[in-house]
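Record 1 of the preview.
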Amino acid sequence: MPWHKPDQWHAVSDAGYAICFSRALGGAGWVYLAWAPERPDAAQHRRALRGKATPEEAAALGYRARYPRGHPVPQLRQFLGRYESPEQARQACLDHQQQQEGANNGSS
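->
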């Protein structure tokens, strides 16, 4: 999976996966956060998040005015994990991509 760096804090793959680099708390090195590609309906969700959707449209996408403690909030990307090295984060992205392709091939 080819990767490119749009800036010093991110790496993005051609398949849409992203890795964000961040300094660990206390200056104990770096952490690497892996993210899956955006959802297919991300444009609709972005519209709702910016307040441009009607309350009915936002509710249909799963958004609420308030969320109870512990209730998941809809996200544009799936968080794949926090890793100690960029190689581990890339491998998590590759594993997720292979899992998704396997699921899509199995449903056909």
